[in-house]
Amino acid sequence: MFAVLKTGGKQYKVQAGDILRVEKLAADAGEKIQFNEVLMLGGDAPVVGAPFVDGAAVQAEVIDQIKGEKLIHFVKRRRKHSSQRTKGHRQKLTLVKITDILAAGADKSGIKAATGSAPAGAAAPAAKPAKKAEAKAAAPAAATDDLTKLTGVGPAAAKKLAEAGIESFAALAALSDEQIAAIDAVKVKPEWVEQAKELAKG
Question: How many other C-beta atoms are found inside a 10 Å radius of the C-beta of residue 141?
Fold first, then answer.
């Protein structure tokens, strides 16, 4: 019996006992892992997934974390002021030995799924939107006015003012000359400030 599994963007045809070099996985040497993305099971009764075979899995044992052969990237520019650059790269790989192929019951095996190692710092940006959402939830809702009521302020200018933190007539009326000069998104006109002072009074 054989299986076709998918990992690291590649497909592999495997049998029990095969040794594979796959894209780096988040697992230590000696650890057992399970590939749940099985595209096909072969044998006496072949099964083709759509795209994956339900309940099927390939179990393996991690032998070692290794590096592939060195690849040389050489760039040369043939000009009067020529330059050349040589870079080497060794891809990080995981060496695994296929131990078993399951046609069903993959979710009850209790072995952790094989996952790729995330690049350094990949999880950090995801935390920023959560902090912004928490800050917005914690801050009291500021009063917002329709800035398009000001003469010469259209929807685009109102949006730029809102991005600069000016969402009400009172906020616009309270701007000093230095603060107005510091706004790069939109050029605040003096007549907008005067009109905002009148509208803020009600």
Answer: 6
